[in-house]
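Next comes a concrete protein, fold included:
___
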Amino acid sequence: THNMIPCRLLKVVPSIIVIASMPKTGTTTLGKAFEMLGRGVYKDCGYDPSLMNTTLKNICEYGCDDELTKDLMSRVKHCGVFSDYPMGHASGYSLPMKIGMYGRTARFIWMDRNLSEWVVSLRNWELTHPETYNGRVSSLEDAMKAYYNMRRQFMIMQQGYPQQLYILNQFDWKHLTLIAFGQVCDPEMPFPYLNKAVRRKQPHQKH
């Protein structure tokens, strides 16, 4: 990296970043990394379930329209990076809807993760956050099916938006600076790693 131009000397490409892979694939880490690159705030982005649900209902009924999304977008426009439910995450608003809401300049990222490790991580996260998931813990079959379906949808959409959708398989500054600045550069800081959950015993599967 010592031969690269420092990122601080470059201008950030003006576009929204959406981490659109499954929960527990490093979405929070990616959000923080892009924030460190100057993309804007990634946490507590004016989260308003009522406004979000109203917007979602209107879009589902009438289709995506600037007039229908302007209140929501004005609430979150300062964020720059969406890495959590429902604006980010594959389990939030659908990818086609997000593309319609954020526009053709937005960048969408899917982070691949070893599937076996991901299932364990997801189930552990659900187990340690019962208030969020109402005590529900995904079965192995349901979790894997959801992962495959969401990744397949992302790959299909990528064919239509190759300049907007990226599939990554490792955490490094190289790919992220390319997305953020349009070229690889040296951020001159270590890569952040967040949300390492405490492991708990997982429930037996019901067959």
In short: Confidence is low (pLDDT under 50) at residues 197-207. The two ends are 51 Å apart (CA to CA). Residues 140 and 180 are 35 Å apart (CA to CA).
